[in-house]
Amino acid sequence: MKLNPPSADTQRVWPLLILLLVVFDLPLLFTLGLSIHGKDGVTLDRYGELLGTPAYLGVLASTLRVSLIATLVNVLVGYPLAYWIKGLRPRGRGIALACVLLPFWVSILVRTYAWIVVLGNGGLVNRFLLWSGLIDDPISFLYAEFGVTVGMTNVLLPFLVLPLYAAMSRIDDRLLQAASSLGASRWTIFWRVFFPLTVPALAAAALLVFMLSLGFYITPAILGGGKVAMVGNLLDILINQIPRWETAAALAAVLLALTLAIYLVYARLSRWGTT
Amino acid sequence: MSERISGRSMPLAIMGVVTLVFLMLPILIVAPMSFSSARALTFPPPGFSVR
């Protein structure tokens, strides 16, 4: 096939491309520039400071840990939900999908504060446990990683379920029927036919959730109460409380590099999976 | 074809419903609380108010 010379159509794309570059990538470049901007030219001191300070590394590690756990819980809880919704009749499916979508239309702040009412020391869960006699003193779910994980899982679940459900509904039912007519059990059909077909979508959705949770700010800020430090909260401190924008920029750059690295691993894995 | 092959079992249905409730819980809590007469966040609301 001969390559076409750039037509009027391709030329018309340029203004849009430049707009995208200016709007999305210029602020990012400023941030990166700020992180290496020193008194006399380019400096990497901030990165050295970041990587040499255990406190910053600890925050990065706990961010990774909380994000990983939240993603894992999301997958374990979200996959069965998407699978269940797929098997429902159209009417039930509509209701269930509406229930998944509804949280999108309520502010994340409101939803996060609601968890204080549920998980707090005088909250629903603790009062139930006290009433049932299982515990004598309230368990402090809040202001610990547990509360943050629950809140993040709750906020991020629709981001996993919706793409996963879309991918599942695109799977040809005739494949499953063929497997069934060839004598495969339901268990075999699921694990040998259905599940492998959903793995790429599951991986993509899980990656989306993981990347979103790496930069989470509101939920750790409210449910963590300053005790669970994630990168977003550290950035807030570095920018608003002790004004050290350069360090904040460096930290943001490290987070970006980390996210890109994870994405590259995923891209490599998915290419390896298809060939 | 009347019989579906995928996604029809009791444990799955229970898990799905529980997950949906988990997903909706903040909204289910916040909606009645908006009519609460208390000034702080408490549930169940001690009284009704449209303040």
How is the topology of this model organized?
The complex is a heterodimer of chains A (275) and B (51).
Chain A: H1 8-35, E1 37-38, E2 41-42, H2 45-52, H3 54-87, H4 90-101, H5 108-119, H6 124-132, H7 145-169, H8 173-181, H9 186-214, H10 218-223, H11 231-241, H12 245-274
Antiparallel strand pairs in A: 1-2
Helix pairs in contact in A: 1-12, 2-12, 3-7, 3-9, 7-9, 8-9, 9-12, 11-12
Chain B: H1 10-33
Biggest β-sheet of chain A: count, sense, barrel? 2 strands, antiparallel
Number of helices of chain A: 12
Strand content of chain B: under 5%
Largest sheet, strands/sense/barrel of chain B: none
Structural class of chain B: mainly alpha
Number of strands of chain A: 2
Number of helices of chain B: 1
Q: What's the SSE pattern of chain A?
A: HEEHHHHHHHHHHH
Low-confidence stretches of chain B: none
Distance separating the two termini of chain A = 24 Å
Largest inter-chain interface?
A-B, 39 and 24 residues
How much helicity do the residues of chain B have? 40-55%
What would the average pLDDT of chain A be, to the nearest integer?
Answer: 86
On the 0-100 scale, what is the average pLDDT of chain B? 72
Please state the overall shape of chain B, judged from the principal axes of the Cα atoms.
rod-shaped
Strand order of the largest sheet of chain A: 1-2
Proportion of helical residues of chain A? over 70%
Radius of gyration of chain A: 23 Å
**N-to-C terminal Cα separation of chain B, in Å?**
55 Å
- What order do the helices and strands of chain B follow? H
